[in-house]
């Protein structure tokens, strides 16, 4: 029998708590499939779980290469290593891109809330020149103005990651578990746990 | 004009030096393409540069999933974040698997040297049960014996990663550079540098 509550979520929350005094404990590596078919891998920031779910939120600029990649292939794998507690989570799943074109009321609201949660400095980055393009020596003469009360700018994207498989490794206790999501007859997402070799 | 010496290599060596008091500074995330076509991502240990080159060495167990993945698709991307100096290296390239079947004399020697460089404890792991397979409660009654002078066991693999593109980001100095390898008319590998937007 599977479990409706993701058993790896409590392990992850514990790891976040015990490594929480390091800012970098919220940094994880996100792998996607590049548009050239090669793997693509970068560091992103964990922005929390969607309330009452095991879905993970990440914010990004719509002009980043990963958006095009995810539109071609929505599958991703997170590798998250906690340096202090020596724990690794490999989380595989499907990524949804919630961008300015989103018309779903719930997601529209989530994106607006995400935007209000970030700092004014972070917001300004979404108004800067296109990430990854050649850097021009001549930059705009003055800083763009951003009303602190206005909603998300067009380049602001919320990524919603829906895991279906997790590989948990604890290097200290020499323990490794595999968690797999299955769908019940009632359509509910259930998690099965299996201990695997290191 | 490109440079024959990889300009990102000195940046990487500096990052390793300034983060060297953390054991985890040698941990990096390696993304490959899974046999199901989805991205695959895990933490591995940097074992150094091949002498006089910009090729990176990694050791692994031949029974690991990444070996099958790399035999299907040899491309990989490393994401390496240095927590102390706030630097990120994304290194894209091609991975060569040097396993027990290798007949090339130079690579045969490199694999043997790699095996002698690791600790007795690390060596024993290559004799353990298959990584990632279900864990059986009953383990072998006694530890397998390993002669400290003998050559590498069959499951020991040397991975040689040959980079062709590097994206370097320094979060502190707000600097980002792209390095691309090109081949000269003489067949030499040359590196071109371009500053890109954050």
UniProtKB/TrEMBL annotation, chains A, B:
Keywords linked to the UniProt accession: Flavoprotein, FMN, Oxidoreductase
Protein name, per record: pyridoxal 5'-phosphate synthase
Location of the Pyridoxamine 5'-phosphate oxidase Alr4036 family FMN-binding domain: 6-98
Cofactor(s) this protein requires: FMN
One Gene Ontology molecular-function label: pyridoxamine phosphate oxidase activity
Domain of life, source organism: Eukaryota
EC number: 1.4.3.5
InterPro entries per UniProt: Pyridox_Oxase, Pyridox_Oxase_Alr4036_FMN-bd, Split_barrel_FMN-bd
Gene3D superfamilies, per database record: Electron Transport, Fmn-binding Protein, Chain A
Matching Pfam families: Pyridox_oxase_2 (PF12766)
């Amino acid at each position: 029998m599977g479990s409706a509550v993701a058993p790896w979520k409590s392990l992850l929350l514990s790891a976040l708590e015990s490594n929480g005094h390091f800012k970098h404990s919220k940094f994880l590596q996100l792998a996607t499939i590049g548009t050239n078919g090669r793997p693509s891998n970068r560091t992103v920031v964990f922005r929390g779980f969607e309330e009452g779910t095991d879905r993970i939120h990440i914010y990004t600029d719509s002009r980043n290469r990963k958006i095009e990649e995810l539109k071609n292939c929505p599958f991703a794998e997170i590798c998250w290593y906690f340096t202090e507690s020596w724990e690794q989570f490999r989380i595989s799943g499907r990524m949804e891109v919630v961008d300015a074109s989103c018309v779903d009321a719930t997601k529209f609201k989530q994106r607006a809330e995400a935007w209000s949660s970030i700092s004014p400095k972070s917001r300004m980055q979404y108004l800067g020149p296109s990430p990854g393009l050649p850097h021009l020596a001549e930059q705009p003469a003055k800083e763009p103005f951003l009303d602190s009360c206005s909603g998300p700018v067009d380049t602001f994207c919320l990524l919603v990651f829906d895991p279906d498989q997790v590989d948990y490794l604890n290097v200290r206790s020499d323990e490794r578990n595999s968690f797999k999501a299955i769908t019940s007859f009632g359509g509910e997402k259930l998690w099965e746990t299996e201990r695997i070799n290191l």
